[in-house]
Amino acid sequence: MYSSMISGESIRNLRIKMGLTQKELAEKVGITQQSINLIEHEKRKIDIGLYMKISGVLDPNCENLVHLPFNKKDIQLPDVFANDTPDGKILNAFHELNTIGQDKAIEQVELLTKIPEYKKDTE
User: Fold this and answer.
1) Cβ-based neighbour number of residue 74 at 10 Å
2) Fewer Cβ atoms within 10 Å of its own Cβ: the N or the C terminal residue of the chain?
């Protein structure tokens, strides 16, 4: 879960700064207004999928939602996020998309995970 790095207050502040109500943000993200309220009051944890949807609406560059206890310039990302890895390529491509494109990308990946020939072996 990403909630330990993301402040509900940050989500609320960015939402208000963008002039969105909880209901409007909820509609853009595809969840209920009650869920947005719980997230903003830090009573609901969010996973990476929901984080990416919220950040796509409020903070596409992930500059304001993630609170880290050190300077972001000092971060040494794991190799998995390097541009030449599959994960890095997907994340970089994802962040080039607008909100609608990000929603479509998530839908497509979710569809691919339902096709047995594309799933990783769990054994």
Assistant:
1) 7
2) C
Residue 2 carries which DSSP code? -
Give the span between the Cα atoms of 118 and 112, in whole angstroms.
7
CA-closest candidate to residue 42, choices 1, 2, 8: 8
pLDDT, tens digit (0-9, with 9 covering 90-100), for 81-117: 566 777 777 877 877 888 888 888 888 988 998 898 9
The secondary structure of 42-83 as a DSSP string is T-S---HHHHHHHHHHH-TT-SSSB--SS-GGG----GGGST
Helix, strand or coil for residue 84? coil
- What's the number of CA atoms in the CB half-sphere (13 Å) around residue 90? 9
